[in-house]
Amino acid sequence: MSEPHSDVVATPDAAETGRIEAAVGALLPALERFNRFEGADPAAPERPTWAPHLDRPLPQEGRGLDAVVADLADVVVPHGLRNGAPGFSGWVTTAPTTAGLVAAVAATSAGSQRYWLQAFNLLEEVALRWVADLLGLGDHRGVFTGGGSSANLVALGAARQRAYERLGVDPSADGLPAMPRPLLYASEEVHHVVMRAAGVLGFGRRAVVPIATDRAGRIDVAALAARLGADRADAEVVPVAVVASAGTVNTGAVDPLGALADVAAQHDVWLHVDGAYGGFGCLDPEVALLFEGWERADSVAVDPHKWMAAPLGCGVTLVRDRSLLARAFTLEPATYVEGSLRPGEAASTWDDLGPVPYHHLGVDQSAPSRGVTVWAILGEIGAAGMRDRVIRHHGFARRLANRARSDPRLELVVEPVLSICCFRYRGTGTRADLDDLNAAIVARLHRTTPYVPSTTVVAGALAIRPCYINPRTRIEDVDGLADAVCAIGDELATAS
Ligand SMILES: *Cc1c(COP(=O)(O)O)cnc(C)c1O
């Protein structure tokens, strides 16, 4: 009688584990071509011809590495997302620059976990320190996350831990008591991921108290202070955190961070700053004043995968007291890892010599090494290169604002603060349906020009909203957008 599986064990694995140079090499020309964004149609075609080629049933037999690489090069990459094209200014997103891309490839292969004492683990910490230093938050430390959503979630998890530990409750171990009820405070302009975080953390979305904003979209500090004063006197609620926005995604408004730090200190409430988009704005000396005081925040979220153009999936939570993260997110020791070590045997201890156990500081256990991408980007361009980018992009928004002020066919909807400029076409006629007209202009821009801004609504008015974070965008793209808006607007306004 033969041993079961004896033949199977001798069969080599079907997956190629070598030939990296040949496989990556075969892909490189397609990536180079894609990265030029030539003839880019940034808006996806309505009936893609490539989809049926890719959307096939599960293959029972593999086609081999070369066939897969050929499909990647010929079909997938050419139909990728063109949000790195120079004229793309929608959302708050772009494609990575080369250093981050190369570092991500390296990490995928050689840094496939951020655990243990190895170069990628060390670069995780080096990059966190560099980001903190770059932002003037030198006393803060933290953890990389999958993006701004989880960076805000993790920061608010630390806030939850502190608020409840003060009441003698460990919310991580025991959950939230029915009373007192947790509350978060944020402006009406806060990013919607904060409400989701409130839901996930057990506060509930409705625990986010919306505080009014002024006409520039900044939180009304007096209204916040009044509400906090009342809630501090109410035994049935526990104020957990004030969530400030350092760069709202609609207009780029920066809440008064110094004043918020004062109010938070006065009422003894955690201050969290969501700087996922705009945190890097502090690098511009002209607007640095707006960020004064944010070093007093208990936590800050930033997204290197936005303005820093790191490969996607790279957010950062920075906190003053990292031990709170460990108490909020720690894992019980795993028997198959540190739980079966003999006394005295080296574990993944958190001390000056040992590696930082990032898997105890956030919501992921296994996670890619992200610090290496930030390290590579800052190693390439330095703080100076990042500062120049931010200043240039702020300049783009101001240039567009000047154009909107001086061209009688355009109007500036709100003064830019960072790199977003909200403006619109108003023509010279008497058309009342300016919202419809501007929506039609943007739809036409997306279909027929390289310029792809978003739209937003500011004080009830539909605005065209370019957000400049893309390192590839040139000044011609800024002027080209304004010219195209005028040309399309003129045409549509006279056609009706
Ligand atoms: C982008 C953004 C988020 C969400 O971050 P993701 O990286 O998209 O998850 C949250 N807040 C602000 C201000 C943002 O710009």
Brief summary of the model shown:
By secondary structure, this protein is of the alpha/beta class. It has 15 helices and twelve strands. Strand 3, helix 9 (193-200) and strand 4 form a beta-alpha-beta unit.
Task: Give the topology, please.
Blueprint: H1 6-9, H2 20-36, H3 51-54, H4 65-76, E1 88-89, H5 98-110, H6 119-134, E2 141-145, H7 148-165, H8 171-174, E3 181-187, H9 193-200, E4 208-211, H10 221-232, E5 237-245, H11 257-266, E6 270-275, E7 299-302, E8 315-319, H12 322-329, H13 371-406, E9 410-414, E10 422-425, H14 434-448, E11 452-458, E12 461-465, H15 475-495
The chain binds pyridoxal-5'-phosphate.
Residues 92, 147-149, 152, 191, 193, 249, 274, 276-277, 303, 315 line the site of pyridoxal-5'-phosphate (PLP).
Note the main attributes of this structure.
single chain; 496 residues; alpha/beta; 7-stranded mixed β-sheet; 3-stranded mixed β-sheet; 15 helices; 12 strands; globular; binds pyridoxal-5'-phosphate
Overall shape: globular
The description of the largest β-sheet is:
7 strands, mixed
Average pLDDT taken over every residue: 93
Order of helices and strands: HHHHEHHEHHEHEHEHEEEHHEEHEEH
Uncertain stretches? 348-353
What small ligands are held by the chains? pyridoxal-5'-phosphate
Helix content: 25-40%
